[in-house]
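queue> pop job 88
queue> type: inverse folding (structure -> sequence)
queue> payload:
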């Protein structure tokens, strides 16, 4: 949101209004240096760097010619002719950022999918898809970054994609960098982010094609899920220590694919720390399918631990061998491959549904 002393600005990207460029509407300035902005859809924030129009901008931004406070208070003579004029701006020109740093795998994957990977100058340690991303310089992990290395690369735009990266965003703003902080919480938000990045990067048509194709695949999953002979109780485990059931888009995926949550009382719209449950709670819910996927952990590890939990030895999913794992990079990266993850969940539920229906009728 920024503090009251910051200049507020808005990144304008709709077609016909300097699409893909950084056109800032400065409202008011009470402290020299920082600017901040919020993109209107879905709580995404665009935080911008310091603006300079020649010398000091400490006066009112609404004045035709601002008299520096120091001169005004001292009685010195001020001449507008002595002030350098700001550089002219062509409002009809599309000028997408040429040097982009992506600090999350999801935004890196979106740029590759949009055909804009040539703009990437650095990525995070976890950006490993597609394989070409592995050759780019690494300047961050997930919740910390080498800010000096980022500044040295002179990026036009830095991309983040999680509320967990707020501290990084703040550090980059303090170093005069322009940051687009995405924070999608459902599949619709992911699609909107793809379209937004398409507009910013001058790849609007490709973004629309990509989202249309992903949407068709989602609709097909939902149609197949609705047609299942039964809708199994599913526990999707997002983390194991502590035990956290799926939230946000992961919880949505279970229902899109034709399942129902084994723990419907858990509020899926809360952060993970507020969704912790006990193994006994899962045992009492008796899920008919268990799916595990921990971010940053190979899928065989959480599956093995789930099968060994003593509290779960009489749970239907364990008794009937229906404990499955999905690779974390298909479910925990809010980019195009999320739909691959949804389809993986759908295959699991569709494959188990006939047996579950038979058990219920028997």
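queue> result:
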């Amino acid at each position: 949101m920024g503090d009251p002393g910051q200049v507020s600005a808005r990144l304008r990207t709709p077609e016909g209004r300097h699409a893909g460029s950084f056109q800032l509407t400065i409202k008011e300035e009470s402290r020299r240096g920082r600017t901040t902005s919020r993109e209107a859809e879905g709580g995404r924030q665009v935080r911008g760097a310091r603006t300079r129009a020649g010398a000091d901008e400490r006066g009112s931004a609404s004045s035709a010619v601002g008299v520096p406070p120091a001169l005004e208070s001292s009685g010195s003579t001020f001449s507008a002719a002595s002030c350098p004029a700001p550089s002219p701006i062509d409002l009809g020109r599309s000028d997408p950022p040429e040097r982009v740093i992506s600090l999350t795998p999801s935004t890196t994957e979106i740029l590759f999918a949009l055909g804009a990977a040539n703009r990437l100058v650095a990525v995070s340690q976890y950006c490993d898809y597609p394989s070409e991303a592995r050759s780019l310089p690494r300047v961050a992990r997930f919740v910390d970054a080498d800010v000096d290395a980022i500044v040295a690369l002179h990026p036009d735009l830095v991309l983040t994609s999680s509320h967990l990266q707020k501290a990084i965003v703040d550090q980059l703003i303090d170093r005069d960098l322009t940051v687009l902080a995405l924070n999608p919480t459902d599949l619709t938000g992911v699609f909107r982010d793809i379209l937004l990045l398409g507009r910013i990067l001058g790849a609007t048509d490709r973004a629309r094609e990509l989202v249309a194709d992903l949407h068709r695949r989602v609709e097909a999953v939902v149609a197949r899920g609705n047609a299942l002979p039964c809708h199994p109780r599913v526990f999707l485990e997002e983390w194991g220590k502590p035990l956290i059931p799926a939230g946000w888009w992961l919880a949505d995926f279970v229902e899109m694919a034709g399942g129902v949550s084994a723990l419907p009382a858990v509020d899926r719209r809360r952060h993970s720390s507020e969704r912790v449950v006990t193994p006994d709670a899962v045992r009492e819910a008796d899920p008919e399918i268990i799916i595990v996927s921990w971010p940053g952990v190979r899928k065989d590890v959480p599956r093995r631990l789930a099968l060994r939990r003593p509290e779960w030895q009489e749970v239907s999913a364990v008794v009937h061998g229906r404990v499955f794992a999905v690779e974390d990079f298909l479910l925990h990266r809010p980019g195009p491959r999320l739909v691959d993850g949804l389809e993986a969940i759908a295959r699991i539920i569709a494959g188990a549904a006939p047996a579950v229906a038979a058990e219920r009728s028997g």
